[in-house]
Prior knowledge:
The chain crosses the membrane at residues 51-72. Residues 259-310 are annotated as: Disordered. The chain is of the alpha+beta class and 310 residues long. Among the domains are: 49-122; 141-266, Protein of unknown function DUF881 (Alpha-Beta Plaits), CATH 3.30.70.1880. Helices cover 45% and strands 16% of the residues. It contains seven helices and ten strands. It has a five-stranded antiparallel sheet with strand order 3-2-7-1-8. Strands 4-5-6 form a three-stranded antiparallel sheet, covered by helices on one side. Strand 2 and strand 3 form a beta hairpin. The longest helix has 75 residues, at 48-122. It is elongated, with a radius of gyration of 43 Å. The N and C termini lie far apart (143 Å).
Amino acid sequence: MTGTPTERPERTARVYAPDFLTELFRNPLDPGYADAAERRREAPPASWRQWSARSVSLVVLLVLGFLFAVAYRQTVAEAPGRTQAREGLVQQIKQRESETDDLSERADALRAEVARLRAAALGGSEAARLRNLEAGTGLGRVRGDGVVVRLADAPPDEDAVPDADVGPSKVIYTDLQGVANDLWAAGAEAIAINGQRLTATSTIRQAGQAILVDFRPVTGPYEVSAIGPEEMRERYERGRSASTMRKVAEDTGLSFGIRDAEDLTLPAAPEPRLRYAQPPASPSPTPSGRSVSPGASGSGTSPTPSGGSR
């Protein structure tokens, strides 16, 4: 067989491109980080300025640590003094409360003695009339059947988020005001809040976190006791205060309940300090320059006290 031999085709090498995981295990460090490390090794040593900056930072850290240590030692040293001062104030408060309770008991005993002497001096009919007036005005102790409205703060819940539309989950002074006013409207003849008798001049206010009834603090749970007719409870439950407190109790977990009570005893309220209008000590000048005496007629004010109280 003649002819020139045929040339074999050249073999081309097959290139296998590595997959991503293989390349990751072979070269775990990014090339950029490797270049930066190489440049750092080739860089000249740190200059004296860099060493100075590091020294200043170290000195500042040491000074701050020293100041914190001194402040801590002073705080620890003053702690016993503050504790003693606090304990002293607590003891004074307890002592004043004990003295106030003793004076209140003594005042009640003196008031009862005055009532006995007055009844003996007035006689039967006048003494009975006076007792009825005292019971109606709150200055006399009364007994009878009625209802007790009990309100208490909701159990503390740290995870609960307060709702501005619902209000706080604790009893506030306006709650007690609403209960007392609706009980009066339902026919109550006598009302007391935690043993504090209400009168025509009584006030229910709030000072900080405390509720004051006639400027005396009361704490929860709060019991509003009322003496009145048999239908008083039914009338009160139809009122606005009862429906509002039921809604608040449902939304916030606040405790609200009404129960009948037999043979309630409500204490007498302390005698109020009434202040009366008084005529001026010296005559007041008129626009015309003439002075008008307190008892003169005309445009001057009347000297007679109004008899009203503030």
